[in-house]
Amino acid sequence: MTQGQEQRDVSRRRFHLGVIYTLMGTIGTAMGIPAVIYLLFPPKSRKAEEWVEVTDLNSLPLGAAEEVVFRKTRVDGWKVSSEKTSAWVVKKSASEVIAFSPQCTHLGCAFRYEEQKKTFLCPCHTSNFDLDGNVIDGPAPRALDRYLIKLEGQKLLLGPVQKSPEA
Amino acid sequence: MKRKILDWVEERTGIETIVKNFLYEEIPASAGWHQVLGSVALFCFMVQAFTGALLAFNYAPTPGEAYHSVKYIMSELTGGSLIRGMHHWGASMMIVIVVLHMTQVFLWGAYKRPREATWMVGCVLLLVTLAFGLTGYLLPWDNRAYWGTVVTTQISGLAPVAGPYVVRLMGADGGVGVVTFARFYAAHTLLFPLAIVALIGVHVYLVRKHGVAPAAGDDLPKKKFYPEQVFKDTVAAFIAFAILFTMAVVLKAPLDRLADPTDTTYTPRPDWYFLFLFQTLKFFEGKMEVVGAVVLPNLAIVGLFLVPFLDRTKIAKVTQRKWAMAVAAIAFIGWSGLTAAAIATTPSAPEVAEGEAAEWAQLTPVELAGLGYYRKENCSACHTLGEQGKKPGPDLTGSSIHRDAAWMIAHFKNPQQMVPGSTMPATNLPDVQLNALAAFLIKLNASNAKDLRDAPMAAAEGAMVYHQNRCAACHQLNGSGVKLGPALNGLAKRRDRTWVEGHFAEPQKFSPGSTMPPYRLAPKDLERLTSYLMMY
Q1: What residues of A are in contact with residue B230 (Cβ under 8 Å)?
Q2: Do B84 and B73 form a contact (C-beta atoms < 8 A)?
Q3: What would the pLDDT profile of B465-496 be if each residue is shown by its tens digit?
């Protein structure tokens, strides 16, 4: 084999290897990126925010918490179902209302209302919250999450839950 | 450092030796571009396995939900349409490549001694590939899937003696249903993948055992598989991939309407690669049907298996194998002729079979307006439309309320008179609106309830405006209304939003000579009506 031929063989081999790796890399990328997007991107939402009428302001006691139960549409993947949801509603004044999501911000347990103390108590790890949802004591990392609220006359409408900021 | 790690791994696993043995296998000097198809077929299978697994991550394998989950993949997941497109078109591509691979082996006579077993395992691989296509066809559970499978199972039932058992095995004893679905799914995702991986293993082992078939008279020194042949295989696989990717991007994988066993307008068709069989059937009638359905296809399969034993000729150059070329050409002409005939004789689908349109989008404006009134009157405070949960009133998908419209309207006005003891309050809507409400409820059933519940508010509100302004007195939409003015289906393709909005107030300005009276709609109504019409 002459030296020139050997050199040609080497550069030929290098060309083959380069093409193999480039094309395989391209295929891997063209499959891999859509796969990651497909698995990790949240689904395009089908519905605008939904507002549900839950109660009449007049029926709520002033300065105390009241649990209201209502139905909400839940979009779960390809399934849309109507499910029961509840909210703890506190009427602060004739025109000011707060509605809390009924789950403790610590680990998601359902909390209850202590009528005498006017506090919310989570039975799991005894987190305590005041009527504004602020943490009094216990392991909860942040105040209770609130529903977005709309008032139409005396009708109370609840929207999506907004996460409270970390303390 | 890299060498050290590799040596460590090599000492414990021997993996480097295995890879080297695989890559540096000796192949004949005559090997080349014509032998890339086997690798491309394997590559196609890998793409199918990968995209199939991804689809399974978001697929509900039950007839009740399969369709909705496929729709969810197609329309709501980013990249979902691409992944399903690759899986859908990839199935066709894999069949094409497998057949081309077999044709190449056939033309070159590479199945000759000692490679008969390799050929026969290859035949089984072809059958498994076709079985993948057949079972996968059912899984989207749309009309196309359902009716195609109905025909398939009926054909299998024609087989003498075995027929009823094959049908039972497919779970289609009492017609295509949940059992059929479960079995096709299990076969498609459990049984066949295991089978094909095992068979590919045997096939590749046999290829390695006997070596790649050399061309006749090739006695040049052998060369290595890597990198030259691997380079050719990779280039070929890349071309296949580029075509597939483009198809998946450009052509959306079909998704018809939800499977409807009562739909008498649907023309069932198998996927294109089975059309020739479908066409063959037409040449045999009555008692002879079994010949076209079972005897001929099975003879063809047996013939294919026996090719190495039927061809007793000496090893020869491909250019001298005239009879092999003739057989391949006849087979190809026969296949394409039958396929073309099948396509040509397919009756054109009736107009309504537009596919893909959601159930709610197929409602007439009156029915959709009825849904709007249902929501506006807050009927859902006491009634369910097929969803879970207990409410004071009955679920309205139940058949007991589906009487005639007159009864329903009387009942809306005075519930107690029609159903003594009912606690339902009377409805105070004008008769026209009660009519619409009744029309909607008559249309409602358990299978479309979910989709109708999901109808966007914008559509229902727009339909109410459409209904209240009596647009149907001059226009047709979804086959309902008077054809005085132009039909409104396809409006979104003909006009843009601004045109439609402006046209209501001044029809003559936008289409001279129009006899349509001007409509001064409230801005909100105008917006709703336009949004609704732009959905068609």
Answers
A1: 16, 20
A2: yes
A3: 998 888 888 888 887 877 777 888 878 777 88
Q: List, as one string, the DSSP characters of B437-492.
A: HHHHHHH--TTTHHHHHT--HHHHHHHHHHHHTTGGGT-EETTEE-SSS---TTHH
- Whether A64 has its CB under 8 Å from any CB of chain B: the answer is no
> What architecture does CATH give domain B360-533?
Orthogonal Bundle (1.10)
- Asked if the C-beta of A44 comes within 8 angstroms of chain B's C-beta atoms, the answer is yes
Asked whether residue A167 is domain-assigned, the answer is no
The Cα–Cα gap between A131 and A118 comes to 7
The alpha-carbon gap from A153 to the nearest alpha carbon of chain B, in Å, equals 18
**Mind telling me how many Å the CA of A141 is from chain B's nearest CA?**
33
* Tens of pLDDT, residues A31-68: 999 999 999 998 886 555 678 888 888 888 888 899 99
SS3 content of chain A, % helix, strand, coil (to 5): 25, 40, 35
CA A137 to chain B, closest CA, distance in angstroms equals 37
Inter-chain CB proximity B387 and A19 less than 8 Å? no
- Element (H or E) spanning A135, and its range? strand A135-137
CA distances from B513 to B24, B415, B476, B521, B533 (A): 79, 49, 19, 22, 22
Any idea what DSSP says for residue A110?
B
Residue B441 near residue B408, CB atoms below 8 Å = yes
Q: State which amino acid sits at residue B190.
A: L
B461, B528 contact by CB (below 8 A):
yes
Which CATH number is correct for B28-254+267-344, 3.30.565.40, 1.20.810.10, 1.10.10.60, 3.30.530.20?
Answer: 1.20.810.10
> What pLDDT digit, counting tens, does each position of B290-300 carry?
888 888 999 99
Q: Do B54 and A44 touch (CB under 8 A)?
A: no
Mutation choice for B interface testing from A69, A78, A85 by most B CBs within 10 A: A78
Instruction: Please give the residue of chain B at the shortest CA–CA distance from A54.
Output: B381
Q: Is A44 in contact with B237 (Cβ distance < 8 A)?
A: no
Q: Rounded to a whole number, what is the distance in Å from the CA of B68 to chain A's nearest CA?
A: 6
Do B360-533 and B28-254+267-344 have the same topology in CATH? no
3-state helix, strand, coil in chain B (%, to 5): 65, 0, 35
- Determine the pLDDT at residue B392: 78
**Same domain flag for A66 and A147:** yes
Which range of residues forms the domain containing residue A7? 1-41
Between CA B176 and CA B150 the distance in angstroms is 6
Hey, where are the domains in chain B?
A: 28-254+267-344, 360-533
Q: Is residue A136 part of a domain?
A: yes
The domain total for chain A is 2
